[in-house]
């Protein structure tokens, strides 16, 4: 455990290897120097750049198969070279369990005093693949890698860096386990899924065994601004054991030197929906964490443990260690979404449910990436990525008796039941003490809308959500009620749906007293606190979400009949509620409403259709749930382009996509034939009435219009509601206009006067 050795070349280091059975000094050579001969003349690139391309860009360039195969050979050769150098010491146990500590002196620096790179920049995690040891005389059964920095204080200068084959005794020794998750997406349209980590983490917490239930708390910081982060840690000093930053990282030049930063959010002054990046250096973040007393930090930010910039402050993980953080899990390269999902799910399952240390949990998660190398790629393809070497673990120090521990007797997964020591339950009123709840099913394609609403609601308190029929307003709102409650942002959600056509409903709202009674019931209020004034007072003081769905019924001459008397009282109720701590969402198919005052433009939130990529993904999942059943022709570029054009025509409307999804299967997933049928053919499933979701509000609304008694012999039109795929941007106030649209084209009694009347309507 000493300072970096002096070396004439930056690609060689004097390294001391220590185990319980002995010690040895070796001249460690950078494996990259021996890989140049494996690169073909056609590639004309350095091995390090080929490996970086493979890990970071192959998923977005899946057709570069030969280059990817070359990168995999380089990684394998790299691991074999490094393993053989370590095995030459004779200290590697045969069939033993090894935890390899890479120890250098430093204080957040990625370089030595001569300006050369430290041994930390080597891809040590590649040694966890058993295949790289296959050519060595002594082959360990399992290897776990952890990196460590020793303070320069008290270290004898000139001593070599240390590689220790032993067990590291880290872990969270506190009597509680509290997690703070900071999710920042200032540009959600161009970023990864907003709930990528949150869903994986909440899934693990929901599945904890009964004896651990309620002993883990998860708090998601909202809004994810730098000021909110500072205030929250100051309000809860020494409360959090682990802080997870789910946000982008970067290494821009600051004062002329590459400096690691994290990307927080900053709402626009004029429009809070216009989020802007707010970069904060690792030093600033580390200082806040030091004051808060956080022991462990997890970073899925790209390049958060990068050594490509040999500069002090460019490695975020090392910077945080320099501020007193005990353990840091970070990424050495840019990482793809699916890898984050796999790694974090396994990491938190091992840490929380199995009680492993941070280092052992990370080792288990890396082995999961090693076993499962299939990753989603662009063009709806999959690629094989050996990206288990991307997540790395840093610890601030190693147990003083590490050198006396025999590696032959120490299993790498020395499970320390961390959570069994959590005896003091966190008070339920502090943050989100997690009882067993049902985690909401992930809602695909709405991450941008969720992050924007989470940014807007704390400022506006009242939001008017509107969009065309079938666009997914109700599904999104129901999901938000469950998600925000399960993630601890709100205490309870109250959902009022004015739609009389909803088959799941057991109540109707014809007066203000009906609304008040339903709210009281959903809040589980005692009989003496169910007056309208008592409810408003409670809503103003607590953190609740009120949703008023299907507000367009008040604007319709048919469905709004009899509700005129409750419009003004309802508006006053919403106005009073929005003045307190609770939040209100009013949803409608129309872009105006009579039940709420919408004072500013940014209180309006138009819900658009799904993106083209999400639309194609939904179309694929609905037509063929199993990817294995898809023919190879499905993944051709021309086929994917045809499906994307179809998604554009469908305007990303989930109801429309559900209606036409069976047709894609009937044409054997031929995108060009499917697209042609949309314009020139007939969807047989729709004609037979088999394609539409009959229980959707859209279909029922059309059925009601078609069955209206004011029209002549509607049964003879032979028109089904499923044929009205919602491809329209504007939903008419009077739903019967949909009937006129078709009726005029088939009726032999049509006259010009009727047509003029219909146009005027």
From TrEMBL:
<feature type="region of interest" description="Disordered">
    <location>
        <begin position="1"/>
        <end position="20"/>
    </location>
</feature>
<dbReference type="InterPro" id="IPR027417">
    <property type="entry name" value="P-loop_NTPase"/>
</dbReference>
<feature type="domain" description="NACHT">
    <location>
        <begin position="461"/>
        <end position="594"/>
    </location>
</feature>
<protein>
    <recommendedName>
        <fullName>CHAT domain-containing protein</fullName>
    </recommendedName>
</protein>
<dbReference type="InterPro" id="IPR007111">
    <property type="entry name" value="NACHT_NTPase"/>
</dbReference>
<dbReference type="InterPro" id="IPR024983">
    <property type="entry name" value="CHAT_dom"/>
</dbReference>
<dbReference type="Pfam" id="PF05729">
    <property type="entry name" value="NACHT"/>
</dbReference>
<feature type="domain" description="CHAT">
    <location>
        <begin position="218"/>
        <end position="376"/>
    </location>
</feature>
<dbReference type="Pfam" id="PF12770">
    <property type="entry name" value="CHAT"/>
</dbReference>
């Amino acid at each position: 455990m000493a300072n970096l050795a002096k070396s004439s070349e930056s690609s060689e280091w004097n390294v001391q290897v220590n185990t319980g059975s002995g010690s040895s000094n070796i001249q460690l050579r950078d494996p990259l120097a021996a890989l140049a001969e494996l690169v073909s003349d056609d590639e004309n690139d350095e091995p390090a750049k080929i490996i970086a391309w493979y890990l970071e860009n192959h998923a977005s360039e899946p057709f570069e198969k030969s280059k990817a195969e070359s990168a995999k050979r380089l990684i394998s050769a790299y691991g074999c070279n490094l393993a053989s150098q370590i095995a030459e010491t004779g200290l590697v146990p045969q069939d033993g369990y090894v935890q390899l500590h890479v120890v250098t002196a430093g204080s957040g620096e990625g370089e030595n005093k001569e300006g050369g790179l430290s041994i930390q920049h080597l891809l040590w995690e590649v040694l966890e693949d058993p295949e790289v040891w296959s050519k060595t005389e002594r082959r360990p059964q399992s290897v776990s890698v952890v990196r460590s920095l020793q303070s320069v204080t008290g270290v004898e200068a000139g001593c070599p860096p240390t590689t220790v084959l032993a067990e590291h005794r880290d872990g969270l020794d506190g009597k509680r386990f509290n997690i703070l998750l900071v999710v920042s997406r200032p540009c959600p349209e161009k970023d990864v899924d907003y709930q990528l980590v949150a869903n994986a983490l909440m899934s693990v917490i929901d599945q904890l065994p009964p004896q651990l239930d309620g002993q883990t708390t998860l708090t998601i910081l909202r809004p994810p601004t730098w000021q909110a982060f500072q205030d929250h840690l100051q309000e809860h000093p020494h409360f959090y054991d682990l802080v997870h930053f789910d946000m982008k990282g970067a290494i821009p030049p600051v004062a002329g030197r590459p400096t690691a930063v994290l990307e927080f959010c900053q709402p626009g002054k004029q429009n809070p929906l216009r989020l802007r990046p707010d970069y904060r250096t690792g030093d600033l973040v580390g200082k806040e964490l030091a004051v808060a007393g956080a022991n462990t930090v997890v970073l899925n930010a790209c390049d958060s443990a990068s050594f490509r910039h040999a500069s002090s402050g460019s490695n975020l993980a090392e910077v945080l260690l320099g501020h007193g953080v005990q353990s840091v899990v970070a990424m050495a390269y840019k990482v793809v979404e699916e890898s984050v999902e796999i790694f974090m799910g396994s990491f938190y399952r091992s840490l929380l449910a199995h009680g492993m240390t941070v280092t052992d949990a990370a080792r288990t998660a890396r082995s999961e990436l090693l076993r499962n190398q299939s990753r989603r790629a662009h063009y709806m393809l999959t690629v094989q990525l050996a990206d288990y070497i991307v997540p790395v673990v840093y610890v601030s120090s190693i147990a003083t008796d590490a050198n006396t521990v025999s590696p032959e007797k120490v299993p790498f997964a020395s499970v320390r039941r961390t959570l069994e020591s959590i005896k003091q339950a966190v008070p339920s009123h502090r943050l989100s003490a997690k009882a067993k709840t049902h985690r909401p099913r992930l809602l695909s394609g709405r991450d941008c809308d969720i992050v924007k609403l989470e940014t807007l609601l704390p400022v506006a308190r009242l939001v008017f959500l509107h969009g065309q029929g079938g666009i997914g307003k109700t599904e999104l709102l129901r999901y938000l009620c469950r998600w925000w409650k399960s993630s601890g942002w709100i205490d309870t959600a109250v959902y009022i749906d004015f739609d009389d056509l909803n088959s799941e409903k057991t109540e109707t709202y014809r007066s203000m007293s009906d609304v008040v009674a339903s709210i009281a019931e959903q809040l589980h209020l005692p009989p003496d606190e169910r007056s309208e004034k008592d409810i408003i007072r409670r809503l103003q003081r607590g953190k609740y979400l009120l949703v008023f769905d299907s507000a367009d019924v008040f604007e319709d001459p048919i469905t709004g009949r009899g509700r005129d008397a409750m419009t003004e009282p309802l508006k006053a109720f919403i106005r009073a509620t929005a003045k307190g701590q609770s939040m209100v969402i009013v949803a409608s198919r129309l872009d105006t409403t009579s039940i709420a005052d919408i004072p500013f433009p940014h209180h309006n939130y138009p819900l658009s259709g799904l993106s083209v990529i999400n639309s194609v993904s939904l179309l694929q999942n609905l037509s063929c749930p199993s990817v294995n059943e898809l023919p190879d022709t499905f993944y051709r570029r021309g086929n994917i382009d045809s499906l994307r054009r179809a998604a554009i025509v469908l305007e990303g409307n989930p109801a429309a996509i559900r209606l036409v999804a069976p047709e894609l299967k009937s044409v054997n997933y031929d995108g060009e034939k499917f697209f042609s049928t949309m314009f020139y053919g007939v969807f047989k499933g729709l004609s037979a009435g088999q394609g539409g979701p009959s229980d959707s509000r859209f279909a029922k609304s059309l059925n009601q219009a078609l069955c209206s008694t004011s029209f002549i012999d509607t049964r003879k039109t032979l028109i089904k509601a499923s044929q009205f795929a919602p491809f329209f941007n504007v939903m008419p106030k009077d739903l019967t206009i949909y009937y006129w649209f078709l009726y005029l084209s088939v009726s032999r009694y049509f006259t010009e006067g009727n047509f003029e009347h219909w146009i005027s309507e």
